[in-house]
Amino acid sequence: MPAGGPFRILVCIKQVPKAQELQVDPKTQTLKRVGVPSEINPPDANALEFALRIKDRMPAEIIVLSMGPTSFDESLERSIGMGADRAVLLTDRILGGSDTVPTAHALSETIKKIGGYDLILCGEETTDASTGHVGPGIAGHLDIPQITYISEIDIVDGKVHARRTAEDGSEWWEAAMPCLVTVNFGCNKPRAPTLSGKIRVKRGGVIVHWSCADVGIDPNKVGLKNSPTIVAKVDTVHLPPRARKLFHGEPPEAVAGLLKALVEDGVIRP
Amino acid sequence: MAERFDAIVVGAGPAGSAAALALAREKFSVLLVERGRAVGAKNMFGGRVYAWPLFELLPEWEKDCPIERFVTKESLVFLSGEASLSIQFDRPRASTDRASSFTALRPRFDEWLAKKAEAAGAMLITGIKVDDLLMEGGRARGVVAGPDKIPADLVVIAEGAMGPLARKAGLLPDMKPESVAVGVKETVELPAATIQERFNIGEKEGAAVVYAGDASMGLRGGGFLYTNKASLSLGLVVSSEDLARKKVEVQAVMERFRLHPSVQRLIKGGKVSEYSAHLVPELGLGMKARYVGDGVLLAGDAAGFLINNGYTFRGVDLAIASGIAAARAAVDARARGDYSAAGLASYARHLRALNVLTDLETFRATGGYLKNERLFALYPKLLLGITEKVYTVDGSGKERISEIVLDEMKGKAPLLKMLKDLLDGARSM
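Predict the joint structure of the above. Result:
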């Protein structure tokens, strides 16, 4: 743990379209993003909640970090409203089209500039891309330990204790700090913003915007052309049309007809 | 850093935003807290604003106020069975004056007014519910919201008809069925040209229609219809006491109202894009709200500042005026350094100067008068019955009007009772 300074937690968040409000354009079969309300990527909100719970128990400073357009301020403001101390938005046109490789690079550079961190919390993945690459990528660039898919966390004697969800159960891990953990979706209930938190947002000065130049990010390492991911094809699952068979007659008769048809189609066994 | 404000206003409806705006202009540090996710999200009204208090608050209001249409046509329609009888008054608008009124959509109107308060320096926070008044030594000294206690010299409660804070603070008596009515409204989308044609109005002109009689299935209450730019606001205000007593569901009353031929004709082909319901304070001054407390003032619906005299429904104008009066009272209290009920006592005087209390007093008796069920069931029926006979020529022999009237009235109610109702009505209006 770096000497001096307060215990510093960085929480990486992304703003995503609200999943429940998403609609697929029936003509183009693509997601309609225009006019869809946004939210903090739900697993990131779980990560922030863990940071806030640590701060409830001990003195700590929470800095929320995101990369994206200035519209992401909405989620950063919400984070401050929930209790984070301040926020940094890395925002620059040249970052447009970055996949998870340049994103992890750019965020790790930004984290180096912020410095003084003890713990970095990320969501396990985003609901709009679901790769789960960025958290581990940041830990790799920073060359610090990481624990992925955690559902419980505590700071004990200057070390991180976390429960990691494994395929057939869970594991308890301990790691020295600084360390990065990625948090399982839905493992806690993120708190609502408070009045005093929202007042802090209104008072201003809690969110800063940094460009790549501010951080010293090499433009040749970010953006679409430095992103190796290729989306080869997007397929939409078309449901087969319903058979629309009607079984007429008195109920016992109609039910018998339905059962017979289901047996014939192999849906149920006689 | 501990936060503190000179004044905290609870609720960013017309009363709250007007109070916050007027307070901010007087150099109070003001926090305006709204429970809805956005301003206007939880609000509802019939659809019409009487403009007069806006001249007091924002002399330039007409420049950017989200006006749908200026009301130039007023109608009162009695419904009975399939028939209807209308009284119509046209007042072409030459220019905007204090007698103007306009139709509006609450989310847009409320947002506009809240933005004005913000521009004047008030801090607007949405999506936060104030849970309690911060009480110290028996007086309000701020608000409690979740884990936060925010102190202030004055709290203006403009939280609307439900009045939970005001009730907790003992400023409002418990809610009873007779103290509130239920308002329901649907927004029916129609092209502007269709609206203009159906209502015989110009591009910027609008119509306001009040329905009586069968609109409410004989329950105490009435219907309304306002023309917006490209939609109609159609709704009902019905006594919640009657709904409960007669075991009628308000949506059934609404359905019947909208299917009446004279209403159907106007909304035909329209698409219902919104359906909403809200409580409406019914008793006015009869609600016996204490609108001044130690460190606290009530404004708007929370204080029962609403007038329904049978032919006009007024809420938004009284709300705005009461917000202005609240700010004036706060200025007086600040000058005396006393925000107790005694220090804020000039609120009543300022409400009177803006004719809020005066109008409420004038129509105080109307509230009682409008409790008379004969007004909503028997009389519209009589009126329609008489009218139908007067206009019927079928060769079966024609009576004189006076005979028709007496004939229709026979056996329906004692003549004396009807005469008394007539006199009471004349007196209370």
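The CA atoms of residues 64 and 315 of chain B lie 21 Å apart.
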